[in-house]
Design goal:
Length: 309
């Protein structure tokens, strides 16, 4: 991955088709429940996050886990990568069994996934995506699965040690699944304490998933001074800036194998990314214009290397 160069960095809605059933919430839930804005949860799940149910029925295809805080760009990364893969002849097929049948929001997302992903107002229409599991299929064979879950469920910016719900532990501890984790980082993210807590969460992730693959995704690379041209970045400068902004974030990812560490000192990949640009017309939804194909191409090539390696 060091062959991808990028310049020094500066420091620093609606979804017509998707409707959601009303959930009877207890009085005061809106004020006290930090996940009350997550779409599709049943009343039982909303009242107790440990009741949240997911099912990954295909244990043969690797799972690409988008991992990061709320609003860090996971959904739009899925959109951008999906568009790129469709252009390369892949099919993107939502897994309808991932969430229980009572989750009508998820059913509607599955029904309308292609139109949502490919619409100009994708940035607004994806607001209803909380959970999503999408299969990447080529010539009838599932290459991998891309999973997104709400960041609020595993990262609290005010806590160094997170209490993850049962469904997260199910994912982390499911040894029958091969997983590639994509922790998201970005320039100018939060306050210093929030970044420290996020590093603690990443360390906790590594501790619970030691034998998995990791690809750090540096989103919003276009907001940094490390870009030479679209898709060409000063990668070492970018990675150093992440270490400055998130002290200790790579500390647990040292390659301890005395042989392979000679040419690969760190046990992770690092990929720059940009989803595109967003403009707000005087009337109407936010307009999304996708960025260079080079970014999703680099990401996909890196993921394929992780899966095949």
């Amino acid at each position: 991955m060091e062959g991808f160069e990028i310049n020094p960095i500066k420091k620093g809605a609606e979804t017509p088709e998707v409707t959601e059933p009303k959930v009877q919430e207890p009085a005061g839930a809106q004020e006290t429940n930090p996940i009350s804005n997550i779409h599709g949860l049943s009343a039982e799940e909303l009242n107790d996050v440990n009741k949240i149910r997911i099912t990954i029925s295909d244990t043969a295809a690797p799972v690409i886990v988008l991992f990061g805080p709320a609003s860090c760009g996971k959904t739009m990364t899925m959109v951008r990568l999906s568009r790129y893969l469709q252009g390369q002849g892949y099919q993107l097929i939502p897994d309808r069994s991932f969430r229980p049948s009572y989750d009508q929001n998820y059913k509607n997302l599955c029904d309308n996934f292609s139109s949502i992903v490919n619409s100009d107002d994708a940035a607004s229409r994806t607001d209803n995506i909380s959970f999503m599991l999408v299969k990447v299929v080529k010539e009838g064979r599932t290459i991998c699965q891309i999973l997104e879950g709400p960041g609020e469920l595993y990262f609290d910016p005010n806590k160094a040690n997170q209490d993850w719900p049962t469904y997260v532990h199910y994912l982390l501890n499911n040894t029958s699944l091969r997983k590639v984790f994509l922790p998201f980082v970005e320039p100018n993210f939060g306050e210093e304490e929030t970044r420290r807590n996020y590093v603690s969460t990443i360390n906790q992730l590594k501790q619970n998933t030691d034998k998995q693959k990791y690809v750090f995704l540096y989103n919003k690379i276009d907001k940094t001074p490390f870009v030479i041209s679209p898709g060409k970045v000063h990668l070492n400068h970018a990675k150093h800036q992440v270490e400055v902004d998130y002290p200790g974030i790579f500390a647990r990812f040292k390659n301890l194998n005395p042989i392979t560490s000679l040419w690969r000192p760190e046990d992770f990949d690092f990929v720059p990314f940009q989803t595109g640009t967003y403009t707000q017309p005087t009337s109407g939804s936010l307009v999304y214009i996708q960025g260079s194909d080079r970014y999703p191409q680099i990401l996909w090539e890196t993921l394929m290397h992780c899966i095949r390696g």
